[in-house]
Design a protein that fits this description.
Helices cover 22% and strands 18% of the residues. The chain is α/β, with parallel strands linked by helices. A five-stranded mixed sheet has the order 2-1-3-4-5.
């Protein structure tokens, strides 16, 4: 009988968890569509395990029964701000950040832990000195896309080509108009001959393209041969 009691006592001890054994805790993350759910879950598990207790990702199949240790993380956006609430075993806090995306979530959950875990603030600031403003870091703001303005091309004035006016000379039928015919020139450029015989006004000499036997003519339209004899029409 004595041996039976010892065996029963031993079985009872084995059937209960050892005194002080930690219960497994899980992290459940809920967020809007703007966030990457996988990254948020990994960041939450890392931060909570680092400053609270070791946790595991919430199983996809769920948990049966009651009394489970679950840390619930909720991330929401409000304009250009990120808000994170952290609820769990004797824990209910929130954090915010003035940036969005994964960086905004990391800053917000660290701020939530910083506010709720007073004894861990020095450790948090030691690990992330440049993220939280409370730790002396610079507030990170969303970078605006720089718009590069292209300067308009300078207008280069084009020099106007100065064209010399073309002088058009009225042509007379049967008269040569190839230089150096004297009658192509103005009256001031012509070579006048002094009146020596029977011509009228100034006598002009034909150089190229002249009529047959015509060497000279005068202002009266009279034609002369090379000996300055009047050619009778």
């Amino acid at each position: 009988m004595r041996h039976l009691l010892i065996i029963l006592s031993f079985l009872l001890i084995l059937s209960f968890p050892l005194f002080g054994e930690d219960k497994t805790c899980y992290v459940s993350v809920t967020s809007s569509e703007e966030f990457n759910q996988t990254l948020l879950s990994n960041i939450s598990i890392s931060a909570i395990s680092q400053y609270l207790k070791n946790v595991k990702p919430f199983p996809p199949s769920g948990l049966s029964g009651k009394g489970h240790c679950i840390y619930e993380v909720t991330a929401t956006l409000d304009g250009n701000k990120t808000f994170v609430t952290l609820q769990g075993n004797e824990l209910n806090s929130f954090g915010d950040a003035t940036i969005v995306g994964t960086d905004g979530f990391q800053e917000a959950i660290l701020r939530s832990l910083y506010r709720s875990q007073r004894d861990k603030r020095e450790l948090i600031c030691s690990d992330y000195p440049k993220i939280l403003e409370e730790c002396g870091g610079v507030v990170r703001k969303k970078k605006k896309k720089e718009v590069v303005k292209l300067s308009s091309p300078k207008k280069v004035p084009l020099e106007e080509t100065k064209k010399k006016p073309i002088k058009v000379t009225k042509k007379k039928k049967g008269v040569c108009y190839v230089e150096p015919c004297d009658w192509l020139k103005t009256s001031s450029d012509r070579k006048p001959r002094k009146r020596e015989k029977n011509w009228v006004g100034t006598l002009f000499e034909c150089i190229v393209g002249c009529k047959k036997n015509v060497k000279y003519w005068d202002e009266g339209g009279n034609e002369f041969d090379e000996n300055m004899n009047l050619i009778t029409k």
